[in-house]
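Deliverable D5.2: sample structural annotation.
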Amino acid sequence: MKASYAALVVGPVLLTAHLGCCSDEPFNRTCAESCQNALSPILFADFSHNRTYEEQHCKSNLSLASTYLCIDLNCGVSTRAVALQRMNSSCRTQYNASLPEFSHLANYTSEEISLFARVHRRDALGPQQPWREPVLPAPEYFHVWLQTLVRPERMTLFFFVFAVF
């Protein structure tokens, strides 16, 4: 009986601690990563084709504009600010490249954004079709990535709660 009582007291405390350490408010990491993953296979015309996709994400203005806009449209301003700060830090460390401000690359009107191509899950992407303008993931493609990244987080929480109790 004492073990059950301890689990009832300690379990919620541990669960709260686990949730607190993993929350990164107001930053929604899953949303930002969904944009980055949805756009990762796309090759842009303003970047050398013999370089890596990771380097393109730091050095291609079209890739950066696409990522900036996706995060802005889907994740909100607070997530955008933190995501761009983290991307900038990563690009500086890996490629010695500082990213331009959001306003320099993604200063498009709503009308201009509505005309950008939307990339779908089954689209053929790669060196044969480099994009010459920013692109955005289609809503259903973005949500596939979002759900893919959310599920492991939910499962981790489920297994944590199950292990505690």
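Annotation notes: The chain has one domain: 25-163. The first strand starts at residue 118 and ends at 119.
The annotation will be released with the project's public dataset once the embargo ends.
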